[in-house]
Amino acid sequence: MNQLMELVENGMLWAAILKTLQYVTIAMLIGGGLGTVIGVLLTVTRAGGILANKPSYFVLNFLVNFFRPIPFVILLGALQPLARAVTGKGIGDPALLFVLSFAVTFGIARLVEQNLLTVPPGVIEAARAMGAGPLRTIFTVLIPEGLGPVVLGYTFAFIAVVDMTAMAGVIGGGGLGNLALQYGYRQFNPWITWSAVLIIIVIVQLVQLLGNTIARKLLRR
C-alpha cells in the first residue's frame, strides 16, 4: 500500500494513465483511419460489390488475413526492423506506436468490412436504381447505413488496444500495463497490480458506454 501511495504522490500512476490513453488514442487515429479505408475497399471490391475487383480484393484480403492473427507480443519483435526504418527507433514509444497502429489497421479493416456487410443489399440497389454513382453510393448510403455497427466495432478495437499496451514494456514503453507488471507483479505487490486493473476496467467501461450510446443514436436515425 505504501508503494502505491508513493507512485500516486510522485505522479507515476497519473503519468501511466495518460501514457496509456496517449498510446490508444494515437493508434486508433492512425490505425483506425487506415483500417477504415481498407475495410471499405474490402467491402466494395469483393464479388458482387459496388466496385467489384477480384485482384484488389484478393491482395487486401490476403494482407488482412496474414497480419491480423499474429499475437501482438510477437508482432512487436517481428516488426522491430521495420519500425526502426520508419521511425528511426526500434524501441520506446515511437516503435510501440508504429506496431500498435499497424496491428490496429488490419484489425479495424476486418471489423469495418464485417459491419458494412450488414447493410441490406436492397438499400444499395435502390440508390443505384435512382442513378447514384459508385462513389456517391459508398459515401451517402453504404457508410452512413453501416455507421452504427462500425462504431461498436471501433469500441471493441479500442478495448483491444488497451490490452495490447500491457506489452509496452517489452520494447521500453510505459503505461498502466507496464506499471502493473514492473511494480506490481514483479515486486509481488497486489495493491499496484489491482489498482492498475481497476483503472483499466473503469476506462474500458466508460469507452464501452460512450460507444453504445453513440451507436444507439445512429441506429435510431
From TrEMBL:
This is ABC transporter permease. The chain crosses the membrane at residues 20-45, 57-79, 91-112, 151-171, 191-211. Residues 17-211 form the ABC transmembrane type-1 domain. PANTHER family: ABC TRANSPORTER PERMEASE, TRANSPORTER, PERMEASE PROTEIN, PUTATIVE-RELATED. One of its GO terms (cellular component) is plasma membrane. Signal peptide: none annotated. It is a multi-pass membrane protein. Belongs to the binding-protein-dependent transport system permease family. It is found in: Cell membrane. It comes from the Bacteria. Its main location: membrane. Keywords: Cell membrane, Membrane, Transmembrane, Transmembrane helix, Transport. It comes from Leucobacter edaphi. One of its GO terms (biological process) is D-methionine transmembrane transport.
